[in-house]
Amino acid sequence: MVTDFGGSPSGAALVAAMASGPVLLDGGLSNQLADQGCDLSDALWSARLLLDEPRQLVAAHRAYFAAGARVATTASYQASRAGFATRGVDAAKTDRLLALSVEVARLAAEEVSAELGDGRPRWVAASVGPYGAVLADGSEYRGHYGVSASELAEFHRPRLEVLAAAGPDVLAVETVPDLLEAAVLADCVRGLGVPVWFSFGAADGLTRGGEPLSEVFALVSEVPEVVAVGVNCCAPREVAAAVALAAEVTGLPAVAYPNSGEDWDASARGWTGPAAFDPGLAADWTAAGARLVGGCCRVGPAAIAELAAVLDG
């Protein structure tokens, strides 16, 4: 049974909107920031902007809302106490920066809504990246880091609590690579009182760690806070089967936001290979049960605008 989220009216409104039809997510935050001229070579990636240039984040979120997105995903994917400590930022200030990620996304939503005056709700998803993201070595595309469940919980729980307290509409627990980290994160989100979606990296129908997607989907769907389950930052060709499986296994709405189809080269810190993102495929995804649909890395506002046209159609 899904929690009613009576203490989170905007989160409950998002859940209701999903029940009525597909809700359009944004695309890759990092590529939009790069297009705005931001330097993302730091190990903190887009989280650096929280420290140095938060207004750039507002502009990036605005670009996606202007393209038709209804949900902005915050710049907290790679933000953590351990990561900011390498820049001399203490835990208290890191927690303020995590909360700021929600605030700047909310500001963008309010600015666009005021300018357009269209009365459409716009929501904020607080991004929770995997442990591998803070390592900045591509580990989230492999999983099985060699750390214990207790170490993973010690890493994840404080920032989840801070992000939940910052008032997002939903927690986006994303790019989860393996069963162990999924189990830890599922335990950490219990009782937070905020809707949660879980999305996994996928390759050849398995998690990045090589486990059956059915196992991780079933595991996280047992948590009352979880309102959608699916995949992200995978090749577009992985989505249709994964979405159908998620809907079948969990009975929940599915979430789908693949990357461009290019491959991440961790050593070169760049993307290689051809792009294969086709907004037209979204009709198949929604037919299979996807109710949160968007793009991940290298999928920009233009593609999100095309997705909006598909979903509206």
Automatic annotation (TrEMBL):
It comes from the Bacteria. Pfam families: S-methyl_trans. PANTHER family: HOMOCYSTEINE S-METHYLTRANSFERASE-LIKE ISOFORM 1, ZGC:172121. Residues 11-311 form the Hcy-binding domain. The gene is mmuM. Its EC number is 2.1.1.10. This is Homocysteine S-methyltransferase. Signal peptide: none annotated. GO terms for biological process: methylation. InterPro entries: HCY_dom (IPR003726), HCY_dom_sf (IPR036589), Hcy_S-methyltransferase (IPR051486). Its cofactor is Zn(2+).
